[in-house]
Amino acid sequence: MPRDWWKGVVVYQVYPRSFADSDGDGVGDIRGVIERLGHLERLGVDVLWLSPVYCSPQDDNGYDISDYRGIDPLFGTLEDVDELIARAHDAGIRLVMDLVVNHTSDEHAWFVDSRSSRDSEHRDWYWWRPPRKGHVGGEAGAEPNNWGSFFSGSAWEWDEATGEYYLHLFSRKQPDLVWSNPDVRAAVYAMMRWWLARGVDGFRMDVINLIDKPDGLPDGDKKLGDLWGQAFPLVSTGPRVHDYLQEMHGQVFADLGRPYLTVGEMPGVDAEQARLFTDPARREVDMVFQFEHVDLDKGPSGKFDIVPLTMAELRANLMRWQVELDDVGWNSLYWDNHDQPRAVSRFGDDDPVWRERSAKTLGTVLHTLRGTPYVYQGEELGMTNVPFSAPEDFRDIESVNYIREQTAAGVPFSDLLPGLRFRSRDNARTPVQWTAGEHAGFTRGEPWIPVTPNHEEINAEAQVGVEGSVFEHYRALVALRHEERAVSHGTVTPLAMDHPDLWAFGREHEGTRLLVLASFTREPVEVPPELLEGWEGAEAVVATSGDAAAGVLTHGVLPGWESVVLRSSGTLAE
Ligand code: ISL
């Protein structure tokens, strides 16, 4: 097995809370994943990334961990995880766990000890700071700096008992660890080795580029209208992140002696930094999740401020990443995950007439680019955003805090609703739609968040094994990556980059050439004739429909929102 085995694979993300509920308590669980492993096998994916199942007060749905070596009873037991690892391995699927070590839960034993007194053993494992000079702790403006939390409010929480503040970039129940403390790092590496010894095959590292905080914790810039200073530019990708990841590699992976995969979640990372993080010679991580393409539609007032995005802008961004990482480094490819809106509603067209076609076409593009594609649960069914309408519809701490903060500042909820509907993380967190039946077959109890009403049309039962379905298209794309080295290992040539509706590129490897053509509009697209020169006798290896393949090969026209992948030994147009 080559060291870079992950170049030819597809990863499937399970957000366990919303995947499948085996015991009827309304929350998905590990046994639910075990019961539905057949779905992943059928799709053909190689790796399962499991979002956190560790012990947690669930303030941020498990991204607040109180015991890294324990499983939350909500999700099951350690034995269930052992069984999941074994069953996944039997099915030829590797298991990658979430690693959340920028912060712990405030209920983790390390933090409980840390806050117990100023000279506790773990005091310097977290960021404790006195009030700002001349201020009284706990009063407005006394925070050590002006940083805002990602989940609204100050990033500092006052601790009356010990008379200091602690830092939390996320919720106040997610205190940040001090990575410059070697004891913290040693404890994290030991925990990672413990999981690898149990059989897991790697880690997805949560906000791993935020672990290096700047010396002196300076104030962040405050733009007009900002309630708090911007911490993000100051904490994103500090220089020591590279050192820590190299150290981690040496301490955890260098002597593992079997295949593994590491992916660093890195908001704010640019392509140049990503090349450094993923250059195999530097031994940091195999790939990163970059955020540029999912931030393009973010307006100046933050994530719920939505600006229109054209296909051309999206394409320009992702194709630039393709080019910049073509010789060194490796891309992760994703349209959505548990933090992002549903891909078809955001980048496709979720009108019932176009939904399936556009969901399939998004799949075609992502899965034929160079990099490792990630499928987020339900994406392979074309699941959509949710028609939220009231404050009570939201569960996510980020949305709930935002609604609370904004309405308290006098903004009517109706003004917030469009942004929330578009981008609330709850869009991705409604239950996977297995059937047209009650609660979409997710649970026999009451789901923790209601299923999306359209489960009657969009569900696995209606798609698996059904020709022309979104699921079967994704299955064909996964198979293509396994079979066709031009997809997994080929070079990429962006084509027709000035076309407003056609996303086109070539792939090439050892004499095999592919031409990917994808329409991002309802109208038929005339393919520029020069693109098709030399492709007359080509084979359509994957297409969203027979019509799409025939349309391109016989008339040079791609029907609305359709896509084809042609294979030939012809010559790629320049
Ligand atoms: O959605 C976001 C907040 O605006 C993102 O910035 C998100 O917080 C960021 O992608 C980091 O996400 C990861 O860490 C968070 C957790 O809430 C997310 O679910 C996780 O994917 C804190 O652990």
Automatic annotation (TrEMBL):
The keyword Chloroplast does not apply. Keywords: Glycosidase, Hydrolase. InterPro entries: GH (IPR017853), GH13_cat_dom (IPR006047), Glyco_hydro_b (IPR013780), O16G_dom_2 (IPR045857). The keyword Disulfide bond does not apply. One of its GO terms (molecular function) is alpha-amylase activity. Residues 13-429 form the Glycosyl hydrolase family 13 catalytic domain. CDD domains: AmyAc_SI_OligoGlu_DGase (cd11333). SUPFAM superfamilies: (Trans)glycosidases, Glycosyl hydrolase domain. GO terms for biological process: oligosaccharide catabolic process. It comes from the Bacteria. Belongs to the glycosyl hydrolase 13 family. PANTHER family: ALPHA-AMYLASE FAMILY MEMBER (PTHR10357), OLIGO-1,6-GLUCOSIDASE 1 (PTHR10357:SF184). This is Alpha-glucosidase. It comes from Ornithinimicrobium avium. The lineage of its organism: Bacteria, Bacillati, Actinomycetota, Actinomycetes, Micrococcales.
